[in-house]
Amino acid sequence: MPIGTDISQAAALLRNGRIVGIPTETVYGLAANAYDPGAVLQIFQAKQRPAFDPLIVHVHAIAQAEEVASLETAEAAMREQAHALMRNFWPGPLTLVLPKAAQVPDLVTSGLGTVAVRMPAHPLTLRLLRSLPFPLAAPSANPFGYVSPTTAQHVADQLGGKVPYILDGGPCTVGLESTIIGWEQQAGAWVLYRPGGLPVEAVETVIGSVGRAQKAVVPASPGMLESHYAPLRPVFIGNVPLLMEAHSGKRIGVISFRENHHAQANEVLSRQGDLAEAARNLFAALRRLDAAPVDLILAEQFPGEGLGLAINDRLRRAAAKRE
Ligand code: AMP
Ligand code: MG
């Protein structure tokens, strides 16, 4: 299965109703024509993704977002804030959940009346999108529930046999999935569904305070699923030296922010204490530890602000037990 930088080959496959691995600044996506349910179905099959988990629609222009979302029916205040967010943060790691336009197939949104939309900040994928007459539905290009891919090779390792082409845009510069916020009509407020690559504090500088989604039995956004982004090995979060003592005798892999704890395998995400660098390194580090000869993975708690919020969210869900 080829990996390459040939945008026209990727475009030809997508026009023919096939799926393609695409780079974004957050993580690699598995893309299909968002208007073609047959193409979108292949994403669910390749990922073994349950049909209740909706996809994000990727666009190259605000005008294209307006084709996908029907903003004209929305309240004026919300419409203005949605546009302000697009102008301020697109292209970039912010996904908006907005009222859905009729032409978006139900399969893309899992039957919801809303659609998740984003403009990715990756030059190759923006060029690809501009060359196509349709937007791309794309979730992360990993088997459902596993750690998201941040290189083309990660995609090939896990979905290689199922994807006819992977567009290689180099390692992801953000390395965490997008921040997702949605407008909740009943509350008349914006709510954070998933912390991610854009700190929610930045969003709040534009639209004021954003609510935090409550945990629900049926998640409002499946990005809220408890066990997700999870390696195969057990993950424990907390004070690493104490956890190392508690698990002595076992082979241990450690994920830490700045400090090396000298376990059997060590992934220090940012020696200089830079959360953006730590975010960029997180998923590749989890994959390396998952492939290392260790029995379990220990992780430090990261600072609870900015990108640390999203890093802690992913670690917590990596640590949550599978059903
Ligand atoms: P992924 O790209 O794999 O991170 O998955 C996309 C995520 O976007 C889903 O798991 C949902 O959490 C979220 N999402 C997509 N569409 C909607 C929607 N209409 N309402 C709420 N969340 C959504
Ligand atoms: Mg995903």
Descriptive notes:
The protein is built from eleven helices and 15 strands. α10 packs parallel to α11 (307-319). The chain has helices at 7-15, 37-47, 62-68, 76-89, 106-109, 123-130, 152-159, 200-207, 240-246, 275-291, 307-319; strands at 3-4, 20-22, 29-33, 56-58, 94-99, 114-118, 136-137, 166-167, 179-184, 189-194, 211-212, 235-237, 252-256, 265-268, 296-299. It has two domains: 3-212, DHBP synthase (Alpha-Beta Complex); 235-319, Rossmann fold (3-Layer(aba) Sandwich), CATH 3.40.50.11030. It has 323 residues and is an alpha/beta fold. The protein starts with a strand and ends with a helix. The model has no long low-confidence stretch (mean pLDDT 93). Residues 139-140, 148 line the site of magnesium ion. Adenosine monophosphate binds at residues 53-54, 56, 97, 109, 112, 114-116, 139-140, 177, 180, 182, 193-194, 221-223.
Helix-residue proportion = 25-40%
The CATH class assignment of the largest domain is Alpha Beta
CATH architecture classification name of the largest domain: Alpha-Beta Complex
Structural class: alpha/beta
Output the number of helix runs: 11
**Proportion of strand residues:** 15-25%
How is the main sheet built? 9 strands, mixed
**Contiguous runs where pLDDT drops below 50 for at least 5 residues:** none
What is the number of E strands?
15
CATH fold call of the largest domain: DHBP synthase
Bound molecules: adenosine monophosphate, magnesium ion
- In whole angstroms, the N-to-C terminal distance is 33 Å
Order of helices and strands: EHEEHEHHEHEHEHEEEHEEHEEHEH
Q: For the record, what is the CATH homologous superfamily label of the largest domain?
A: DHBP synthase
